[in-house]
Design the sequence.
């Protein structure tokens, strides 16, 4: 798209200019200088096409460049690996940004100097749009809004507690006051894996730098993007439902990395597939937004080993699916763990309430 191209052009031109100025005169142009130069460029005949691009899109590109240099200078100062800002290539994070002027009406979005564009909304837009980024991923374009929401100050309630156990058999087991719920993992990746394999095999057979290779690459990227988005959508629906319907969520802190290292290969794929990490991130910020409590229980809390009924600890191997204790308590291991996590959340809030 023309806008993304123009943003990239300005960014790369600015970067080249900064590099030569530094080499020849040891000077660094300021953001102000570069913006002024942009105004002059628009008046020149060769670069008059810049006038057709929304000015804020171009200024944002210069802002990004300036930021890239600030980070670079900071890294030099801190004696870290500096990493000089790189040129942007076509097809690599193609995007442009608007700081303002974007409106949304129903399923249409108004992009200044482009006009109305129809889009599929993944969630309702709340509050005032502060920034809009248009990104290309695979073959599709995405519009991403950053909104500012007025915060209502509400007292956080703690009446309704749920315990969540994550596992390989089910994505999660959720124990609430009413019931124990098993959430099946959708396994999007596994299902699409054969397609991914097929597409990457096809890609490897294409001649280097040929048109067909580029096309095959695009198809593969599109498939990856599709899976990623479907998984994200699914996780968003689940995390929103959990946060909306309960006050306090107790979850075992995920030592996913450790699990990955220990688990056999096919399991490792299942683990990264289900995306617990993403789920936990979503729970974290959604709890903050809605004034709910999220409690992470340390990974050494014996949620799996402890008997929910008599609190005695029993050894249980990874392959044993049913938990059984000498006291007569028998239950699916994940249910037992979820109930223990829920109980841990209740005992902590009780401790807090004790008079000093
Ligand atoms: Zn027991």
Sequence:
């Amino acid at each position: 798209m023309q806008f993304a191209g123009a943003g990239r052009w300005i960014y790369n031109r600015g970067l080249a200019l900064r590099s030569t100025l530094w080499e020849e005169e040891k000077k660094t142009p300021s953001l102000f200088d570069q913006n002024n130069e942009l105004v002059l460029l628009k008046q020149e005949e060769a670069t008059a096409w810049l006038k057709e691009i929304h000015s804020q899109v171009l200024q944002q590109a210069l802002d990004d460049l300036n930021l890239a240099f600030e980070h670079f200078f900071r890294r030099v100062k801190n004696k870290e690996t500096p990493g000089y800002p790189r040129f942007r290539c076509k097809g690599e994070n193609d995007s442009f940004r608007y700081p303002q002027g974007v409106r949304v009406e129903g399923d249409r979005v108004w992009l200044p100097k482009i006009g109305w564009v129809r889009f599929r909304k993944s969630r309702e837009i709340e509050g005032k749009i502060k920034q809009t980024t248009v990104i290309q991923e695979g073959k599709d374009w995405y519009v991403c809004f950053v909104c500012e929401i007025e915060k209502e100050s509400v007292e956080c309630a703690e009446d309704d507690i749920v315990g969540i156990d994550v596992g390989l058999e089910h994505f999660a087991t959720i124990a609430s006051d009413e019931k124990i719920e098993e959430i099946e993992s959708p396994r999007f990746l596994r299902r699409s894996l054969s397609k991914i394999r097929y597409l990457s095999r096809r890609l490897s057979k294409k001649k280097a730098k040929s048109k067909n290779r580029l096309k095959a690459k695009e198809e593969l990227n599109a498939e990856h993007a599709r899976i990623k988005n479907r998984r994200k959508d699914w996780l968003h629906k689940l995390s929103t439902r959990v946060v909306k319907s309960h006050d306090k969520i107790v979850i075992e802190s995920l030592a996913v990395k450790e699990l990955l290292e220990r688990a056999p290969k096919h399991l490792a794929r299942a683990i990264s597939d289900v995306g617990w990490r993403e789920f936990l991130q979503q729970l974290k910020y959604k709890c903050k937004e809605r004034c709910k409590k999220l409690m992470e229980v340390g990974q050494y809390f014996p949620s799996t080993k402890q008997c929910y009924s008599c609190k005695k600890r029993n050894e249980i191997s990874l392959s044993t699916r049913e938990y059984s204790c000498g006291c007569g308590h028998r239950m699916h291991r994940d249910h037992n763990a979820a109930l223990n996590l829920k109980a841990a959340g209740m005992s902590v809030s009780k401790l807090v309430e004790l008079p000093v």
In short: The pocket of zinc ion is lined by residues 307, 309-310, 312, 325, 327, 329 (CB under 6 Å). Residues 2-77 form one domain. The longest helix spans residues 211-245. The first strand starts at residue 95 and ends at 98.
